[in-house]
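Researcher: I'd like a structural prediction for the single chain below. Treat it as a standalone chain; there are no partners to consider.
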Amino acid sequence: MSYQYIKVSVDEAVGIITLNRPDVLNALNLQVVDELVAEMERMDRDDSIRTILLTGNEKAFAAGADITEMADESAIAIMLKDQFAVWDRIARISKPIVAAVSGFVLGGGCELMMNCDLIVASETARIGQPEIKLGIMPGAGGTQRLTKAVGKHRAMEMLMTGEPITAEEALRYGLVNKVVPVEVYFEEAVKLAKQLAGQAPLAVRMIKQAVFKAQDLPLEEGLHYERNCFYLLMASEDRKEGIQAFLEKRKPTFKGH
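Model: Treating it as a single chain, here is the predicted structure.
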């Protein structure tokens, strides 16, 4: 497919999506998000791709929403447009999503990052939700995902002051998985994505679903869901291959069956 604001490539079993509006620090307008989600869904259906990698550039992963689109809109017009509904589709992507972030990761960029499953950040990343400085608030999940990631008090501070945090602070708060030098942040993210791509696809998918459930369900219900996923995986060909490879002291070849 041909896109205006994203670039798409494939490295082995990793599908790479690169935000491509460098002149405006990868600001997220409606078309960017539509293109991004459409390509994520296409990759989710492609059996040759096992992991999705989302990135921007060294200067900016995404510096926020494109404010020019909202400047003259009425509250009713924005509500009827329901511009955030497309974001809900990201949560339904079954394959793991790795983010490689650097530079500005603000507003919608932070919300997009938090929709990913694993996050590699460069030392230069500055992460935050500055909407308060415009007299508004996050609308694509920022208050909800940030609170679940870092806790009430840290989230309140970030959301109400609008001040960004450093990559090292984000690591301490549990908001990102790894912080590396800017020169290698993309390569490290690719390495992680390839590692996930080598795992059993069905098990990866069910682990992702079970972790999502852990965020929303009481413990007893979550344990029940986990157990059913475990039982289902026992019927897979990958389970047989994984155990046989272990017994034969070789690397397993998982096929997602």
